[in-house]
Amino acid sequence: MAPGPPRILTGVSTQIPTLEQLQALGPVQQPTYADTELLQQVTAQLRTRPPLVFAGECDDLRAKIADVAAGRAFILQGGDCAETFDTGTAFDIRGKLRVLLSMAVVLTYAAQVPVVKIGRLAGQYAKPRSKNTEIRGGVELPAYRGDAVNGFDFTPQARVHDPHRLMEVYNHSAATLNLIRAFVTGGFADLRAVHSWNQDFVRNTGAEARYEALADEIERALAFMVACGVDKEAFRTVDFYSSHEALLLPYEHALTRIDSRTETPYNVSAHMVWIGERTRQTSGAHVGCVRQLRNPSGAKVGPSTTATDVVALAEALDPEQEPGRLTIISRMGAGKVRDALPPLVRALRATGRTVAWVCDPMHGNTFEASNGYKTRAFSQVVDEVNGFFDVHEELGTWPGGVHMELTGDDVTECVGGIADALAEADLSNRYETACDPRLNRNQSLELAFQIAERLTDGRIKRINPVQEFRAEDF
Ligand code: PEP
Ligand code: CO
To answer: What is the pLDDT of residue 15?
Structure first.
């Protein structure tokens, strides 16, 4: 992460609506706390906690996303569907970081532009749900809404909505971000080491025949850079940012502070926050909460989104048309993206807006396997990414990036992939997600190589070729 000036973010914001004003907008997908006094105590404590990120870092990310919107950079955003308090170990965090950095090297080489690396990490603890309750064996309990709200165990005690969990979210986010900051500046992200992990993947899996040539090209490119005298230190650190869905208004509101220099509000719980498909109502409370922030923000759009909707959403979230402020994350489904996305891209373009377009090829492709597991097919994930590229190629716009649910572990949650060729019968081996199925390490790397193939086949028009090269953009 870029250091950025350590501007102090203090006190209660007078420039954003009060929590009561947001509540009056009838926010959907909120917990129902029995003890509202306890909620107030916890949020009052949260308001006194130090920021997890600095305003200057958020500004840096906004500038990088402005480059994405202008066709000069590519976003790689990824991590768990739902982080949990128990699984957020050093091993787990390192695994996710390792896979994201590995993917980023391949994508940087292929896209020939800087890759902006953003984790679904250090705050991704709350989940919107399609049903309020879950029924198992005739017993009905409140649905699991992420560790920020209640517990995963199917017991009445675990499923109670507990405000104390918001403080745990803050604490776990702080610990996670602390470790990530240490990893990305402490040598773990060294480009040559990251590349060697990719070579291990290529050599030790069935993917060798298809991807070895590309891996070897990257190897030669790195050797060339070293030979040219590119500063070895510049290989050692990367910029890495945190993001999560801004879902729980009491938490997001309590972590919104005023920057002492610009006197404007920043959400200091993450560098970037996004609004989910279920909470993107233009006059709703989530848009009301996020629209005032100076952080770069995102909005997910699914196949029911109309051209009018996306224009209204962009106007609400980015009234000043500020470069890098808004990322639209399309999650249409492989079968729909080629029809549903073009009207949205055309409509926004017609308003003169430039937003960063990112593809989430996960959430429109979830299905139930014959053995009852919620899963996704690797082939459909690839197909949606290709459909997203097809649309942008056709319209002459820049496909700005991808948003993935993934983990560094060898889990068995999504079917397919050359390296693992996971079948439905394999899903039960290591099905560990607390919410949606994630790509495992091999599947994630394979996806990066497939995107790289697409980015290097000459079909994507480079809009604004990169002017300046900085090794730390890897
Ligand atoms: C998610 O990102 O985990 C999610 C719930 O996505 P969406 O809002 O697109 O359904
Ligand atoms: Co998800």
So the answer is: 66
